[in-house]
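seq as requested:
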Amino acid sequence: MADVADPEYWVFGYGSLCWNPGFEFKDSMVGYVKGFSRKFWQGNIAHRGTKDKPGRVATLVEDPQGFVWGKAFLLPDETAFRYLEMREVYLGGYEVHKVDVQSDDTDDCCGRTVNATVYVATPDNGQWLGEAPVDELATQVATCAGPAGHNAEYVILLARWERQNAPVHRVDVELSKLELLVLERLQSIGVRPDDVLTTNNMRSFSSMVPEKKLRCLNI
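struct tokens:
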């Protein structure tokens, strides 16, 4: 119990946790992890899709040359971990891992590194959908929705968050391409982007994530 309550216990988000953590936290840090790439290979039936039409959400895949930009949160106690276990493991099909999160380049004197828990989906979970061409991913994302909202919202808000927080040379090119194709697919079926951006009334996307706390929200 003492380890769980450790005030230096961090969690790293690389998907919806970046802009919609849904739990209280003591501190936060925008940063990146090395050795991974972000892939939309995990299915989702609890939040951004249904059993008949699962959505696509992000996971991490090992990549020696890769890096993923996201946000680390310092949790106050075990309450947030119970919430995350339900949200990411039980409902999402993710496993728990540990990673080092760096705030910026290691040769920067102001750099900061924290060791954080991260949730990673693996091919042996029941919601795994696997690799697909980006145009197929975009079509699926543009036509799926679940209890938490449209699947396109997940991709659009994540891509916008990264553009606002990551240095230009570290922006996820695959994510940007997926967002562009999703927007094209929405247009082709007569859906405006504003119509899918419903979470927290985030159409203006001006405030992003508060620095200290949020109430419990869906992904």
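Confidence is low (pLDDT under 50) at residues 1-5, 201-219.
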